[in-house]
Amino acid sequence: MALLVDLRSDTVTTPTPEMRRAMANAEVGDDVYAEDPTVNRLQERAAALLGKEAALFVPSGTMGNEIAVKVHTHPGDEVLIDEDAHIVKWELGAAAFISNVQLHTLPNQRGIVPVGEYARRIHPGDDHTPSTRLICLENTHNASGGVVLPLEYMREVWCLARQNNVEVHLDGARIFNAAVALGVPAKELADCAHSVMFCLSKGLACPVGSMLCGSRAFIEEARRLRKILGGAMRQVGILAAAGLVALDTMIERLAEDHARARRLAEAIAGMPGFGVDMATVQTNMVYVQTEAPARRVVQQLEMLGVLCLDVFPHTIRLVTHKDVGDEHITHAIDAFAKVAG
Ligand SMILES: *Cc1c(COP(=O)(O)O)cnc(C)c1O
């Protein structure tokens, strides 16, 4: 059978053999009673890794983000957030639906809203205006091609927020991609936020799950909201077992995904009909500009055994992950060359 390369997302990863063994052998209990030892271990590990007091296993990144927004705000509060954030674009308006907050969306350059813009928008709330309660950051920034928000920028936003009594939530679905690309521990990024969500089910290759991390009081409230939203599960140590393996074995190797994305991007950038802004290729994503309609290019690539997504009318997204090896990259480059023909 011809080689099939799936570059649609890092969510298409399958669990490693070690994960499957750990899942099969997981020690479990009823997590609604907080009695699942494997879940408890994973929550402790995640909290320690990000330098937070506590953590909570949640079924999805979306639930983690939306619980965070709810815990940090009251109905009618205002949240400052870049207009391309996952919370704005791809969570079905959940912040309005669940938390009844006003998302004040701001223009950004690759996920970065100038700190002065945040400063200008923060207001305490009075008889006429909503209270600014929360700033949401996203690192890496998905819609900008997986670019990394620099640590220095995160620290500036953190300072501003604290000076103004505003909370910060970090959508760190891919925080480890950011940390590996920056060469810093993820904790340093997490230090710039009151709460952090990260996904186990993306580049870390787990089948299910995300972690929400924060103070003990924050996680206590988050736990109640998880139950309200139907996200409390029973012998979920079977899933958490994969998460523990992921934290042990899948973080350092993200550098390989980044190197492969770069190789792919460099090759495609030189082909007629395609363009890649190499400055945005910082982690495991490549956004390719296409002269032809992206939809048509995606179909042509599919015939050649390469799956990817058309994210805008003339933009294709390619994502590397642990199930994409060097031979897959070679195959994908050959397919692009044929389409460029
Ligand atoms: C995927 C993603 C999420 C949501 O995760 P799900 O598990 O798919 O709900 C949130 N934020 C970002 C930046 C993401 O890429």
What does this structure look like?
With 341 residues, the chain is an alpha/beta fold. Helices cover 42% and strands 17% of the residues. It is built from 14 helices and 13 strands. Strand 12 (309-312) and strand 13 form a beta hairpin. Helix 2 (37-50) packs parallel to helix 11 and helix 3 crosses helix 10. The longest helix is centred in the C-terminal third of the chain and has 16 residues, at 254-269. The mean pLDDT is 97. It binds pyridoxal-5'-phosphate (PLP). Pyridoxal-5'-phosphate binds at residues 60-62, 65, 86, 138, 142, 171, 173, 199, 201, 210.
CATH-scheme architecture of the largest domain: 3-Layer(aba) Sandwich
Identify the bound ligands: pyridoxal-5'-phosphate
Radius of gyration: 20 Å
Mean pLDDT: 97
Q: Major sheet: order of its strands?
A: 2-8-7-6-5-3-4
Main sheet record: 7 strands, mixed
Residue stretches low in confidence (pLDDT < 50, at least 5 long) are none
N- and C-termini, Cα separation: 24 Å
Helix content: 40-55%
What is the CATH first-level class name of the largest domain? Answer: Alpha Beta
Order of helices and strands, N to C?
Answer: EHHEHEHHEHEHEHHEEHHHEEHEEEH
Number of contiguous helices: 14
What percentage of amino acids are in beta strands?
15-25%
- Can you count the beta strands? 13
CATH superfamily of the largest domain: Type I PLP-dependent aspartate aminotransferase-like (Major domain)
Q: What is the CATH topology descriptor of the largest domain?
A: Aspartate Aminotransferase, domain 2
Structural class: alpha/beta
Shape annotation? globular
**Total tally of structural domains:** 2
